Structures are given as structure tokens and as C-alpha cells.
Amino acid sequence: MARVFMAEARVLAAWLHDLDPFVFQINGFGPRWYGVSYVLSALLGYWLFKGLAVRGYTDLKVERVADFITWIGLFGVLLGGRLGWLVFYGFREKHAQGDWWWWLRVWEGGMASHGGILGIVVVTYILSRRWRVSWTSIGDSLCVVAPLGLFIVRCANFVNGELYGHETNAAWAVKFPQEIMAVQPVAEKVYAAVEPHRDLLAKYPNDREDYAEQVITAARHEPRIAAAIEPVLTPRHPSQLYEALLEGALLFAMLWIARTRFRTPRGVITGLFFILYAVLRIIGEIFRVPDAAWHAGPFSAGQFLSLFMVGIGAAFLGWGVRARQYEQADKS
User: Fold this and answer.
1) Where are the domains of the chain?
2) b (16+ CB within 10 A) / e for 52-71
3) In this predicted model, what pLDDT tens digit does every residue of 129-162 receive, in sequence order?
């Protein structure tokens, strides 16, 4: 009986997510934290990569670092991430049927980290050939700094309330109003709960005439709306933060130590990145509601795609161990 009471108390104590995806708004327009996260990732990546270049951990000249990060950001992360989402997820979405222009609506979301990573690999290879530097040399240092970008973007996912986790009674559970956009039974209960407050909802129209979005926005600003929907929503794992810590902070710490504390052949850091990212992503996905309907046996889409990254990582790792090429900072 005491355990049941404690579990119910934890559920009631779950925080109602009310973070605004906009940094600020003027007449309904303004920068979003998700967009800002990519800018911050690029700036931080530039600063760290430049520091590694100065210390001799890459063949790339210091004066080329800014160009390198710009190319990686625009064509590796953004273009690769978008194309990856289209291939792995977008073409399988129901809303794609009968709408020929849906794939261009980038402002509605749709980025895949697996696509971004593969895009970075391709762009890095092209630039290494163009600038006549070692592909694995610039790739290793990029892999060291990339996890901090993943950390920042995952935090932005949390601010947006997207990619949330499975139901839980954990004391740190979060109730995400965004679940009404995906879980029909919950949406019906929420709409019934806010019906007496339609006068408040009318203050938050949107261009798409999306009722769910109207309710979510109103809940951030109107205590009565928040109080009405809070008991109906499901306490969930804040899986975005789990992934931020795993794929971001932890992965960065491991690769930074491997890069700066050990004499590591070229290609090994890249191999470690692919393998460790895949393992940590698979672990993180255990707590996360899959963002794609398709799966492969017991694996979600994200977990299944991560399995291939293990093979890619093993190839880089094997090449690096055999080639035994080192950066200037590693030579003794």
C-alpha cells in the first residue's frame, strides 16, 4: 500500500513541460532555440577544432578551420541531416501521401542525426581531397568536437518537447503536452478538459489552424489551461536529456581523453566515435518513444541504423591500427 502511494505521489509530482521553443517573438515570429542550437554548435565546434589544430592534432591549417566548419555545418549537418530524415523517416510518413511539397517544409522539422553524421563523412572526404590533407586527420578532430553539438541539439529537442520518452513513474518524470499530437486517446481527454476554457484558447491562434498547437501554446501562458491538462498527460522519461548526456557529454569526454591523453593513430578516433555513438544511441533509444513507425525486429529505426555505424567504426578502427599514421602532436 505504501509503495502504491509513493508511486502515485511521484506521478503527481511530474513537471508539466512549459518551455517556449522561441527565444523571443515579435508578432508571432522570432528565433527558435532549435535553430540557435545549430549556431552555437558551429561556434563551439570552431573554437575547439581550432584549439586542436593549434596543438598539432590535425593536418588542417588553422586559417582553414572556419571554412571547414562552415562547409561541414551547411552541407554535412544541415543537408545531410535533412536528406537522412527524408530517406530514413520522411518517405514513410503518412502525411507525405498526396502532398508533393511536404519535403521542402524544413520549418516543420525533420532532421536525422544518422543522416547528418553520414553527410559529415562525405563532406570531410571531399574537402580532404580538395585541400590535400589526410581524411582521417581532419575527421578524427571533428569527431572529438561533434558530440558537444549533439549535446546542444538534444537539449533543444527537450525545449521543443519533441522526441520524448516512454511512460515512467520516476521522480524526474516530465509531462509533455506535445503528446496530444501523437496519442489520440490522450488528445481526446485533453480537448474535453480544456473545453470550458475555449475563451482562453482563442487568444492563441496559429497560421496552420492547428488545435493541438493552440492548446500547447496556451498551456505555457494560462495557468487554468495548464491545470486542466496536467492530470490527463502521461509522465514520461525526459529521454532527450538522457541522449544529451550519453551521445553528447559522455561521448565527448571519452573521445577528448582518447585524443589528448593517448598516442592514437589516425582513424582510431573516428572508429571509436562511430562505435561508441552507436552503442550509446541504442541505450538511449530504450527510454525513447520511437519517432518512426517502422522497426526491424526488436530494434527501433534509430537502433537499427546505429548497428550499421558499428561496422563503419570497425573499418576505421582496423585501418588506423594497421596504418599507424600519427598526428604531429602524437609523434615522439
Assistant:
1) 2-20+168-236, 33-167+237-330
2) bbeeebbbbeeeebeebbeb
3) 999 999 999 999 999 999 999 999 999 999 999 9
